[in-house]
């Protein structure tokens, strides 16, 4: 492998150029190379100063996250930063792109920070459940003031070049030759190191005010509380002691399951972007124009996704009246964003200009991608796919937004099954980030690559899944819904069930969610598929449809969207349980949570066994971005690993035995992994 640091001396200034693709993370080799460059520059009497520059798409993306948890290799980042801080000669960071986390900490230990116009400076560690652990909580406050530094850390978002200079975090923006300008700085006398600039901390009261405003976050996110404590230490402790205090906090957070989960999410999201089994060199097809069939809630939302990404899109309906309603729905959604102030009127107009409407499927003739979002009825879908096959160009991708129907059957209605796949958006489609890209039996690698690439352009997180009823997300959700209903029959109340999930970290429990969505939706699907859910059915039959009728699982007093407990529901559940012959009992919160979550994990294991998802991390990404699974819990499969698969298997087996429900019996894969003392994380794709 090429040396990660190139060292050269020209005209008495040394330049260390970092090259550690893809993002110049501070791996052991990069740290060693940079440490060595500092030593050489210090030892060489012919060198007046050192410039640190970098090649590639980032300056330095931070510590190498994949090394966390492994034994630290010397020189550590702390040692490297101390060497920069203590160097007798000036060191200049020439930052052409993002300097993040440990990357910014390296730069802050230099004498000056000289920026290219595309530089971005940030401390995103909180997003990984961490804090800057190499002096960042001490140097950023000395450069930009304690209050502003705290704001930068807890936001986790980088500043662009001009903002970084304005804040005092960097010295100048250079439009011309960045390294040349940095060399000029390196020839100057070394200024006082940042570590000694205590006057930079600024007003203590301003910092305390900022800290007080974070009280709510600090109560639930330990990294926020620690950021505050570390910056406060800058006022109260000598520099070296405050750095040791920061180090201890960093190591404590590194070991916290919440940070482990967030780091798992970081890698799972990036891994999900790689399609398992795709032949090397597969190229996506260009998509210049899209068409969306149907302009109901989903169709309208999907069309907006294309327009928001700057892709012209045609909305297609069966008649003029339906089309007018659909276009009005789209305009109304944009208008309310303008009213809320989240969108400018110009942007709304530019987006609306990208959307046109038409009646009839023949209007798909010039589209490169068609997304069908009509009723969930196989007969209708097959008819549509047959028609699309006749009127669209060769190579047009034909996608269905179905939530659970068989894509292979739709593909069979065409003469080009290789171009057919699922693109399953989540409601509201213009907001939720998940896109399940459903690979059918004959879907070609190009079609798959096109759908995932377009998903990324639409700012979605695409996850490739296989064909089955409900794909990954809804198939697992069905297990949770089934248990939630069953728990009511066995004696739990809707609020106990909801509370188990909100305490776990979800924003809403299943019953509050059902009331919001409307109970009639599930009821209609059950009627069509011959299924029943005795409690939910009884509620619908009593005309309790949720928030829209102001009563469902809860009661909604006039004007309120927050449900209150309704004794009528308690009585109704008791009556239904008696009819069903289910004996009611007190059920503890722990059992409720396990009954809701572990059957989902079990279904996830079956999904892996069947190859419907390629990796456990893909399932986690589906739940994080489609169903608001709390990120600090890492997703259902990571959660199962964190509680231990032996425990999961034992609980499921006990539930199966107690309820007589065989679907709760542990999946073979789950049993096997548990017996081998392994976790889902040990499984590798392909
Ligand atoms: C830290 O610094 C702690 C210190 O305070 C104290 C330590 C003692 N490490 O996102 P991309 C990989 S904590 C290892 O697709 P982009 C990534 O997995 C760190 N690997 O590219 C992917 O690999 P693959 C604070 C990393 O252009 C590839 O690089 N820093 C790291 O869309 C490309 O990534 C952060 O939290 C890393 N630090 O976005 C920044 N970063 O190709 C984290 C990336 O195998 N990184 N990889 O899938 C980012 O936010 C984005 O990666 C970045 C580039 C904006 C840099």
TrEMBL record:
<protein>
    <submittedName>
        <fullName>Enoyl-CoA hydratase/isomerase family protein</fullName>
    </submittedName>
</protein>
<keyword id="KW-0413">Isomerase</keyword>
<feature type="domain" description="3-hydroxyacyl-CoA dehydrogenase C-terminal">
    <location>
        <begin position="470"/>
        <end position="556"/>
    </location>
</feature>
<dbReference type="InterPro" id="IPR006108">
    <property type="entry name" value="3HC_DH_C"/>
</dbReference>
<dbReference type="Pfam" id="PF02737">
    <property type="entry name" value="3HCDH_N"/>
</dbReference>
<dbReference type="InterPro" id="IPR006176">
    <property type="entry name" value="3-OHacyl-CoA_DH_NAD-bd"/>
</dbReference>
<dbReference type="InterPro" id="IPR001753">
    <property type="entry name" value="Enoyl-CoA_hydra/iso"/>
</dbReference>
<keyword id="KW-0560">Oxidoreductase</keyword>
<dbReference type="Pfam" id="PF00725">
    <property type="entry name" value="3HCDH"/>
</dbReference>
<keyword id="KW-0442">Lipid degradation</keyword>
<feature type="domain" description="3-hydroxyacyl-CoA dehydrogenase NAD binding">
    <location>
        <begin position="290"/>
        <end position="466"/>
    </location>
</feature>
<comment type="subunit">
    <text>Monomer.</text>
</comment>
<keyword id="KW-0276">Fatty acid metabolism</keyword>
<keyword id="KW-0511">Multifunctional enzyme</keyword>
<dbReference type="Pfam" id="PF00378">
    <property type="entry name" value="ECH_1"/>
</dbReference>
<keyword id="KW-0576">Peroxisome</keyword>
<feature type="domain" description="3-hydroxyacyl-CoA dehydrogenase C-terminal">
    <location>
        <begin position="592"/>
        <end position="678"/>
    </location>
</feature>
<keyword id="KW-0443">Lipid metabolism</keyword>
<comment type="pathway">
    <text>Lipid metabolism; fatty acid beta-oxidation.</text>
</comment>
<keyword id="KW-0456">Lyase</keyword>
